[in-house]
């Protein structure tokens, strides 16, 4: 509470006038902020179009096909006039869309969320994440190489080429950038002959598969059989559609467990929309398991609630290493 001039009986008349002016200005600002919040809430309540950002990493036709059922369900469930899907060319496209308020919802990796949080902690609100079939809420970054490369462990890759996925990817950059050196004892740019970004997870795996790099890093549940590309993520998707033959590949490195990325909603939409979307997504695995599996990209139990604190470690690591 702002103190009134009566709290300062010894102030001069001029000073008391200044105090009253400051108090009045604070009231004006408070009223303006309240009106703005009410206008924003009213606009959110009358939401006609819902804009969904889809991270880069997989080719665009597959992303649009996998998310088409989600758009249909959102439109029917909430009565939106339109649900627009925006498959960004890279992770940063979705990050900038959420920061700029041109997207309402997206599924992010932990590092992508950290990038937004470090620029504006109030831009989006994480509300759910995926739960693996073993009950965990984490996954791994794995290093893949061709069997015929002769690379069996990450130490065999010294002097070779390392492929990253995207600068804002958790498993495709942030984690291998910070964790592989703990296994090799050297920074990646010293241990490897070269490192390069290959434009997303799918392109990164293909770069390794085609011999353009020797090791590529990707996210994986680490659960299930290697011959299936494990149970989820890009490697799994590529094995499922026949893009790569896992019998020609070997896992040469695995990170510590990484927090699964969050589903986020634009914070300006308010708590009511966060609650509505939470209820909708929690019901989705049972209401349409096929659609859930399509957007999840593999085999999961469902969703569990999360808060920003769940990503504190990743936020801190990103801040200390690559910044916002």
TrEMBL record:
Coiled coil: none annotated. The keyword Zinc-finger does not apply. It holds the Pfam family Phosphonate-bd. Keywords: Signal. GO terms for biological process: organic phosphonate transport; transmembrane transport. The keyword Signal applies. One of its GO terms (cellular component) is ATP-binding cassette (ABC) transporter complex. It comes from the Bacteria. Belongs to the phosphate/phosphite/phosphonate binding protein family. This is Phosphonate transport system substrate-binding protein. The lineage of its organism: Bacteria, Pseudomonadati, Pseudomonadota, Alphaproteobacteria, Hyphomicrobiales.
């Amino acid at each position: 509470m702002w103190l009134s001039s009566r709290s300062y009986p010894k102030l001069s008349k001029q000073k008391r006038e200044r105090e009253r002016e400051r108090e009045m200005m604070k009231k004006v600002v408070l009223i303006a902020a309240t009106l703005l919040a009410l206008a924003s809430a009213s606009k959110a309540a009358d939401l006609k179009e819902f804009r969904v950002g889809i991270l880069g990493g997989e080719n665009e036709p597959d992303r649009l096909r996998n998310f088409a059922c989600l758009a249909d369900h959102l439109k029917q469930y909430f009565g939106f006039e339109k649900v627009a899907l925006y498959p960004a060319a890279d992770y940063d496209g979705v990050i900038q869309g959420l920061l700029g308020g041109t997207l309402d919802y997206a599924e992010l990796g932990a590092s992508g969320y950290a990038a937004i949080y470090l620029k504006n902690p109030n831009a989006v609100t994480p509300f759910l994440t995926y739960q693996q079939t073993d009950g965990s809420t984490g996954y791994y970054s794995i290093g893949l190489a061709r069997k015929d490369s002769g690379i069996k462990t990450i130490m065999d890759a010294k002097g070779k080429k390392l492929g990253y996925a995207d600068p804002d990817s958790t498993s495709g950059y942030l984690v291998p950038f910070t964790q592989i050196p703990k296994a090799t004892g050297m920074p990646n740019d010293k241990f490897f002959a070269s490192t390069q970004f290959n434009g997303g997870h799918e392109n990164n795996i293909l770069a390794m598969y085609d011999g353009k790099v020797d090791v590529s890093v990707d996210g994986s549940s680490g659960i299930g059989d290697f011959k299936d590309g494990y149970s989820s993520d890009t490697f799994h998707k590529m094995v499922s559609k026949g893009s790569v033959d896992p019998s020609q590949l070997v896992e040469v490195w695995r990170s510590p467990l990484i927090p699964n990325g969050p589903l986020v909603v634009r914070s300006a939409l308010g708590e009511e929309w966060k609650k509505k979307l939470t209820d909708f997504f929690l019901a989705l695995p049972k209401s349409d398991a096929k659609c859930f599996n399509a957007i999840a990209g593999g085999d999961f139990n469902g969703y569990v609630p999360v808060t920003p604190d769940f990503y504190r470690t990743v936020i801190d690591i990103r801040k200390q290493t690559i910044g916002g």
